[in-house]
Amino acid sequence: MVSPQTSALHYGWIILGAGTFGSFMTLPGQTAGVSVFFDPITSELGISRTSASIAYAVGTLAGILPAPVIGRWIDRRGPRLTATIIAGALAMACALMATVQSALMLLIGFALLRGAAIGGLGLVSQQVVNLWFVRRRGIAAAAASLGLAAGSMVFPALTDALISLCGWRGAYLVLAGLVALTILPVAAALFRDRPEKFGLSADAGLLPHPESRREEPSFTREQALRTGVFWLLCAAGFLTNAIGTALLLNHFSIMRSAGIAHGAALLLLSLLAGVQAVVTLGTGFLLDRSEPRLLVPLSMSMLALASALPAFGSGIAVSALYALSVGAAYGSQQAINAAGYAQYFGRDHLGAIRGASFVFGTAGAAFGPLPFAASVDWTGGYATVLTGCCALCIVCGAGAFAVRRPSSSAVSNYGIGVVP
């Protein structure tokens, strides 16, 4: 077991690697990972896409509700114990998915899978990196988020191969074993609380950027909820999760409507993930030099474009541009979510604040697929709902100019440190 005090390498780099791997291993419960299972599950269980979408939505919402409690638990008990328990729960959730026999069991399986992966492992993996990086948090959190992009490139192809080899039930059993043998021991051995507890400096010992020399804020959850920027970040996260989840969950269906074969649609998922990785890093670089809210219009404009393209176009060129837009939207918002809350509100109560934001963000993932399923049932396609999504993204992007960084006077009134 590696000790932070005796490690030859500054332990911040080990934390960055462990947090990145934690994000990577959330993919069995991420939409990009679940989407490959969606058609085989609905076909074998004999349930409609709408019923499966409802089970996914309700399961996602039920699974994310404990996130505020998990966030407070991370604040009080530290990321190591929390991550170890959550990794075990994710392995069990994958094993349970292999036993699903009905729509009700599918709902329960989705609740455990989504809760353990997103509200659990995703939350603590982001949190541990935010605890160890302050002045270079933007690029560090973005780099850690590359685990999610890498997982989005690896897991769809891996699970598709596993399903072809041993069926979707066997594939879930393999994923359960993979989680138990990888992220579970990594969490127990490497995740640690903030560096000051071990007599170490933040940011892996690197000097801060001259532009980032400001006092670190310290907001409680209640104080953060009173700020406009919290709700802006939540709104952007909600829309990205709602629209992105619906697009990914129905990816193969949308691609069929655009005249794209299954193999090409699978390749477009890899393209999407590659763009996501590049844009995540680029946005992280910008986050160390500017406010997160100023980058929200970027993510929303990309998501608006991703919504408009399949609504009004078809063919391989439009579909490739669509994949690029979805990847850019996910990548930019991923970096903003990973570092934005910590940049505005500090580390002292970050678990509780992020737990609250995860509820709003993942509620989008819960409700997003429902209008898409209804659009197919009522209109026979996705054009109507995609047009509405495009409009909502434009409104949210414009809203970024209506909020400000929490002011010094507001912070002083709350009785905490000044944020210049």
The percent range for strand residues is under 5%
The geometry reads as: globular
Name the CATH class: Mainly Alpha
SS elements, strand count: 0
How many structural units, i.e. domains?
1
Helical fraction equals over 70%
Question: Regions with pLDDT < 50 over 5+ consecutive residues?
Answer: 408-420
Termini separation comes to 41 Å
| CATH T-level topology | Growth Hormone, Chain: A
Assign the structural class, choosing from mainly alpha, mainly beta, alpha/beta, alpha+beta, or little secondary structure: mainly alpha
Biggest sheet statistics = none
User: How confident overall, as mean pLDDT?
Assistant: 85
Number of helices: 18
User: What Rg, in angstroms, do the CA atoms define?
Assistant: 20 Å
CATH homologous superfamily label:
MFS general substrate transporter like domains
Element order: H for helix, E for strand: HHHHHHHHHHHHHHHHHH
**CATH architecture assignment name:** Up-down Bundle
